[in-house]
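Lecture 7, part B: from sequences to assemblies.

Below are the input chains for today's worked example.
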Amino acid sequence: MSRALLALIARDLALATRVGGSGALSLVFFLMIVALVPFALGPDLNLLSRIGPAILWLAAVLATLIGLDRLFQADDEDGSLDLMSAAPVPLELVVLAKVVAHWLTTGLPLALASPLFGLLVALDGTGMGATALTLLAGTPALTFIGAVGAALTASIRRGGLILAVLVLPLMVPTLIFGVSAAESASGGTVPFTTPLAILAGLSLIAAVVGTLAAAAALRWSE
Amino acid sequence: MTGPTRAGSPPKGCAGPSLAGAAHPSPARKDRPGGSAEPEPFRSGAQSGKEAGAAPGARGGGIRILRLSVEELACRRSGRRVFTGLSFALRPGEALAVTGRNGAGKSSLLAILAGRLRPDAGQIRVADVGEASLPECLHAVGHRDGLKAALTAGENLAFARALLGDARMEPRAALARLGLGHAHDLPVAYLSAGQRRRVALARLLVCHRPLWLLDEPTAALDVASQALLAELMAEHRAAGGLIVAATHQALGLEDAATLAIAAPEPGLDRPSPTPDRDADWRDADVEDWA
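Predicted structure of the full complex, as structure tokens:
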């Protein structure tokens, strides 16, 4: 069973890096948003470094939505999903493997690249580290919440907009705690670990609920 | 739900001849006690979390034994009755050619057998497969080939082999058998429609599955490949496998029983005013466009 899941993760990672894959897409989108903000706000370094974590988190939420609509739709269109439903593996684990692979190609690069992009919004060293850590803890929640919407819209052509409308409200708590954790690292009354623990908890809850809900949505659409 | 397989139950309504006990003595596996096994009720959930290996002689050995019995199956899509009262039974080594006009429900029947559609009425029973559910015992090759264009043919087959389990042939050997040895390292995007179909058919060879569901398997295939497919099907049946093929052409199943799906009685059901996307995508009409 684990061999099948590893094969599925390896396949999705390979697909993300091939031609037409969505590997670098969300990262480039992330960079575009973060790079445009200083141009819009002007060269006020104090203002930029104060709202920097919020900008990075906002960009991460929007970048997560890119490519999410193809998570199950691509496999639904070409019949791969039928192949997976014939595997001796529960659909929940198939969903889990696909979402993990998706996070490895979108969420993880975002978190790892965020210190670099923090330079664009004049973050100091502590802020960069804190933002990267909160993104590492929080982007799994974003991906798993998005997976539910992706499963619901898998059989809808041009379901990307519906997907965004469906899942963005559910991503709000993650965004709130992510930004508050990143900001509390560079001053404030709340200790850093409190919102970070809640953020990690949100990711764990989303991993369980999101996997079950996405699998149920895929079954229901059959 | 559970009951003995009623081999040879008379067809009702529009169903074609029942196949049970028809022409073929199965060449292999005659050692099994024929009617003694109690068939299991079909579990419609495609993903039961069990390992598929509990069947007698399951992994590593030959093709798993499977007997399939379908009774009074009815299908309704978007409120429109597609077919009713289909009954047939298949024993190891037997094949069924499903015929009927476009839109008669051939692909719907295969989708129900594959667990992708829920039947409106009727029962599907499988026997002698142990813990495995029916979707874990079958290969389905249809209009959507399940291949990723960005991956090579070999990678696609290696993935299917790891995912489906019950590995049999190496991807390279399976491709060579289908005359595509040179395509092992080519992305599927570079292959023609007929070559893609042959890669999808090679999936039949990389994993053991006792039941093959083939939806217009000869579509886009040249004459030589059609003969090759007929050869593969004959080998599969000789090893005790089952085949259900929706087809307009003979494709080497001349000796197999035929199930003709007729049109439902007119006037009973009005077509739904809003046909869903699912129906027009998956229904048999698609084969006209291909």
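Note for the exam: The radius of gyration of chain B is 18 Å. Keep this in mind when comparing with the next example.
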